[in-house]
Amino acid sequence: MTASDHALLIIDVQNDFCPGGALAVAGGDEIVPGINALMGEFGCVVLTQDWHPAGHSSFASAHSGKAPFETYEAPYGTQVLWPDHCIQGSEGAAFHPGLDLAPAQCIVRKGFNPGIDSYSAFFENDHKTPTGLEGYLRRRDIAKLTLVGLATDFCVAYSAIDAAKLGFAVDVRADLCRAIDLDGSLAAATAQMRDAGVALGGA
Ligand code: VGL
Ligand code: ZN
């Protein structure tokens, strides 16, 4: 079952994206036991961690007159504005306490540049600045990726689409993801993942 060229990429299973958190995703905590059970099937396990400095440009609180879930025109394109979340070193930025961290071989932090958000595990939202994950996976001879985590329609979808564009074979286990679903964002992200050649399984 374990293939050495197949990695499990676990996106942002952090307190702030779980019920009670600053940017809670409905049912975000429900996926933790299933993700823990899956880790043993992969020779490579990678976690991502949303990791913003206080006052990050993706926070509505950093833009006068803006409320969470409105947008602003960033230099790199339209950016959704979020409640303050996943602030570096905070309890909200910590992984869900039930997530098994021991099998994780690499933890990629993203969103630490004050002026750019980073949904994808591979590139910041300018679609240019790399996180370094591509190099890590290539040096480990990884060809296939299975994605799980939060949120389906933002960080999971952006990561899956970038991975497919980079030439990895990608599948998303939809049963081990949960969505924010802002103004139809889940349907749009699902269509974009399909168009990019991402396999959607586990539904
Ligand atoms: C995410 C919004 C802002 C995510 C992160 O993990 O999907 N969404 N930051
Ligand atoms: Zn964020």
UniProtKB/TrEMBL annotation:
Pfam family, one: Isochorismatase
Domain Isochorismatase-like: 7-199
Keyword presence, Ribonucleoprotein: no
Protein name as it appears in the record: Nicotinamidase
Class of this enzyme: hydrolase
One annotated GO biological process: pyridine nucleotide biosynthetic process
Cited Gene3D superfamilies: Isochorismatase-like
UniProt entry tagged with the keyword Transferase: no
Cited InterPro entries: Isochorismatase-like_dom, Isochorismatase-like_sf, Isochorismatase_Nicotinamidase
Pathway: Cofactor biosynthesis; nicotinate biosynthesis; nicotinate from nicotinamide: step 1/1
Protein keywords: Hydrolase, Metal-binding, Pyridine nucleotide biosynthesis
EC number: 3.5.1.19
Domain of life: Bacteria
CDD domains: nicotinamidase
Family: Belongs to the isochorismatase family.
Sample GO molecular function, one term: metal ion binding
SUPFAM superfamilies: Isochorismatase-like hydrolases
